[in-house]
Amino acid sequence: MTDHDTEGGPGGPPGLPPPPPLGAAALPPGTYDGTVVLVTGGGTGLGKAVAAEFARLGADLVIASRREDRLRAARDELAALGGRVTAAVCDVRDAERVAEVFDAAQAAYGLPGVLVNNAAANFPVPAEDMSPGAWRAVVDITLTGTFLMTREFGRRHLAAGTPGSVIDIGASYAWTGGPGFAHSAAAKAGVKSLVETLAVEWGPYGIQVNGLVPGLMPHDDMTADIRGNLDPAGPLAARQPALRVGLPRELGWAATFLASPYARFITGHTLVADGANWQRRGLVGSPVVTVREQMGRAAFDGGATSPRTAQDGPPPSPRTPPGSRPT
Fold first, then answer.
1. Which is catalytic among the residues 32, 109, 173, 262?
2. Is 173 annotated in the active site?
3. pLDDT for 197-210, tens place per residue?
4. Region entry Disordered: which residue ranges (predicted)?
């Protein structure tokens, strides 16, 4: 996608201005010199975009994901920005593997000073069709995985007596609920609670914990499930209060600020970067269309189940949907 795709149609109000060009930075050059940044789900999409902005500011990167092929490609792309990059295959649900990734990061560059929990799983499904395996897969990756990564980060900094910063990528339906995404919305609500809980527990030790919620930020790695939900909606920019969608680098800029020395007094906060889309309300409520109808599914007959079961393994999407209000 290009910056041109972010703008609404001609005429009418202008919407929010476009952001600075790719490669620009609000923070001083070298802000993250000597800092190790670990990004889960860093091989694709928004995770890779966040990692790139840390790299531009001098960070040494460790990117983790379940897909080795994507990690290799992302490592080469990020290394071209000038910093050191290590890739680690990791299932964030596996506490032993999580510890091994931290060991590898520490051996390569030193203890990560910033952790970005971006890894998640999601796909749209009516709650009545959701299998137990589908529920467990999404909640275990999104919530349990975030906790296991954060716990390992916290334990190592507490033992070393060093400060650190955690950023958990959330979703606005942690506040509102997410029809069609009951598993992910419940997990993201848990992630938001972790942010608020651990910020208080670990603040005395110098460890910040914040959340960061992306809005609609289309990118080439969006899954077919999520892209299929967006495409029928028509021009996306015209359906946002900002009259444009976000760009992945805008999430990266927000992340680099939250973890920077200039945001040390911000902790326990979840920042929403979505152009006010999740707060949008009409003067008169629109007609209710059930989730089943929106997804083109027949009436529930008592026997339908999600096509993804415990035997199928986790769903393929590595991210939450971009924004949690209808577009």
1. 173
2. yes
3. 999 999 999 999 99
4. 1-28, 297-327
